[in-house]
Design brief:
Order of helices and strands: HEEHEHHEEHHH
Number of strands: 5
Radius of gyration: 18 Å
Strand order of the largest sheet: 3-2-1-4-5
Low-confidence stretches: none
Helix content: 40-55%
Length: 206
């Protein structure tokens, strides 16, 4: 009878990707990702991370992880990273400049803060962030540094939305993080938007 293979933790493959990525580019690698792009309310948050090489076995794209796992991994990332940066842009900035500009701005700022420590940079997505920053779709599920950034951005943004739920009750920010769930949309239809909603988004303003 053939023995079943134990499934390798995703984090190890992500670290192997990073090692191959910097082989011809020079390290260390700074990875960046954002959270909150599709939300109807709250800030757009980006994080960038340079890891110290210590493997975090369960590290993966934050969207695939449970809230409890994300919080645990946040502690491991912050405890073991060489450097981490976080940048947030509020809803009014997104309304004023547009989501595309906000996405570029928040990622660029996060990467720039760590640039003196980095040899190369990789961001999740397909944006054009300049000659010194490479972008790759689904990099948060391929690169350990980008996955770490995705965890930091997601956990901190979710916490910010929980805080905002205390100031703007009724929208369920503590549960939906500002995304357009049925309950959130019903609250918008009944009460209208609050000051942290993105008024330029379809379905937000009356």
């Amino acid at each position: 009878m053939a023995r079943s293979r134990r499934k390798e933790p995703p984090g190890r493959a992500l670290y192997a990707f990073d090692a191959a990525w910097v082989n011809n580019r020079g390290g260390p690698l700074v990875g960046a990702d954002e959270a909150g792009r599709g939300s109807l309310a709250g800030p757009l948050v980006a994080a960038a991370a340079i890891l110290d090489g210590t493997v975090i076995p369960d590290l993966d794209d934050s969207k695939t992880l449970s809230p409890a796992t994300r919080k645990r991994l946040l502690e491991e990332v912050l405890g073991g990273a060489e450097a981490v940066s976080v940048v947030a842009l509020p809803a009014w900035w997104i309304d004023l400049h547009g989501l595309g500009a906000a996405n570029k701005e928040v990622l660029t700022r996060a990467i720039e803060m760590l640039k003196p420590r980095a040899g190369c940079a990789l961001a999740d997505g397909n944006l054009k962030l300049g000659a010194e920053v490479e972008c790759q779709p689904r990099a948060d599920g391929s690169s350990a540094a980008v996955a770490a950034a995705s965890v930091v951005a997601k956990v901190l943004r979710d916490h910010a939305m929980c805080v905002l739920s205390g100031e703007h009750s009724g929208y369920g920010f503590e549960r939906n993080s500002g995304y357009g769930t049925p309950q959130h949309r019903r609250a918008l239809a009944e009460a209208g938007p609050c000051r942290v909603h993105r008024m330029s988004y379809a379905g937000v303003s009356r």
